[in-house]
Amino acid sequence: MTRDDSSERGTEPVPDGGTATGEDDVVLDPWGSATVSDYRKLFEEFGIEEFDDVLPDVPNPHYLMRRSVIFGDRGYRRVTEAMRNDEPFAALSGFMPTGDPHIGHKLVFDELIWHQQQGGDTYGLIADLEAHSARGLSWEEIDEHARDYLLSLIALGFDPEEGTLYRQSENRELQDLAFELGSKANFSEFQSIYGFDGETNVSHVQSVVTQMADILYPQLSEPKPTVIPVGPDQDPHVRLARDLAVRMRYFGVTKAYASFEADEEELSHVAAAYEARKEYADDPDMPRCEDAAAWLAENGDPDVPAVETTISKLENAGMEPLRPRVRFLDRNATEEAYDALIDAIEGEKRVFDEHIDVFDYSRQDAKALAREVEMDNGGYGFIMPSSIYHRFMTGLTGGKMSSSIPASHISLMDDPEDGYDKVKSATTGGRETAEKQRELGGKADECPVYELYAYLLAGDDDEFTKRVYDECVGGERLCGDCKEQAAQLMREFLEDHQEKREEAEELLDGLDIELESSRR
Ligand code: TRP
Ligand code: SF4
Asked: N or C: at which end does the chain have fewer Cβ atoms within 10 angstroms?
């Protein structure tokens, strides 16, 4: 097996229009190189939401949030609501034990720890199946690195007694869930999402299904909003997991106006016709479908295909009155669960083979009932998982930060003196001469050293971070001194962290997590 499974990263199209070819294109490839040339494209092309929009809703936001290091999310609002209302929520992320944990991983460790401190049920997992199948690491190597990741996570403040740590390979419940989820995904999807092809090894496919199970694992005991803090390269996984969460649900809940089925677009035209009922109905309490059809034929845009299909559906319904209702759709329900839902619904209901219409429920109440019945009848009742995305750190040498280029990153296990030296020899955003720097100011926005301050060295101290920035761009700060200060802080951080790692040893050994793989 090769470390670099490049055969699996062909030129297949990736979701949402990006392609793996053109140089300027942004590609989100979980097994490719973790860089993003243009974060804005992630909003425009991939539909990731801007974190700034949800930031005001976050109680005591972490400094990585305040400083826009966390820049995007999917559905994080749901998690903030749970935090604010003191309702259960969870956070989970995973680590491929392919090398030393480094300062890039620290971002995710910190995100998990913060969510744990906010009261979340928090999980850290070792993606050993993925490391073995997608990167070809041996079990010996995996064991060694796994231990190092866990020690750093605990040393940084993760409470393993409150939270959960596991390795994919040793978690039977997880594998069972993976198997169930796998029944709702097929290989064509994997081809289009990940570029898998006939050469892709089957264990790699299995490791993806396992990651889907990881993401939904916190909800096995009960459905709850869950955030997955990751880099944007993991977004394809998050999207698939969000889809699978929905596909596993027993019932869908939608709005309807008459007995026929309509898609979302058609529904909006029916809604418009319903709102206009006074214009055409003899009795506005009973607007007839056929009259609504006539109204839509006159008022709708004939060039829109959905208008046409809506008109014909309304015509077919004839004399049936339009009447707003909430509809339960049978997606995956067992027969018993469907019957149980029928029994559980109160008030007026109309039962069909694959849907039930009700008139006395809000959509929200209907959704709650659907979840309750699903769970009482053997379903999971999953809530769509959410994610937050952090920026990738720039390498100290300017390019991307990569585990395979030692000078580009600082390992959490680096000798503190080496850490000091690496910072001292880092690329900066400084000018050619001190004179020019005083005149023009430094380019903090392009400086890996400034990033070190903002992402790590300044900790929670926003004022200090701002001072470094202002002094730099104002020309008062020169790179020599600035790097000296950063290097010293890095040395202190590494000394302190490594001391804490040692303290964590004992704690780790007392935990119920297999540190030596049974597969060795
Ligand atoms: N695929 C992730 C990586 O390459 C590791 C991972 C496995 C993960 N399962 C996960 C991340 C679940 C987040 C959530 O690093
Ligand atoms: Fe970077 Fe500091 Fe130089 Fe500014 S002064 S460019 S922050 S090293």
From this structure: C
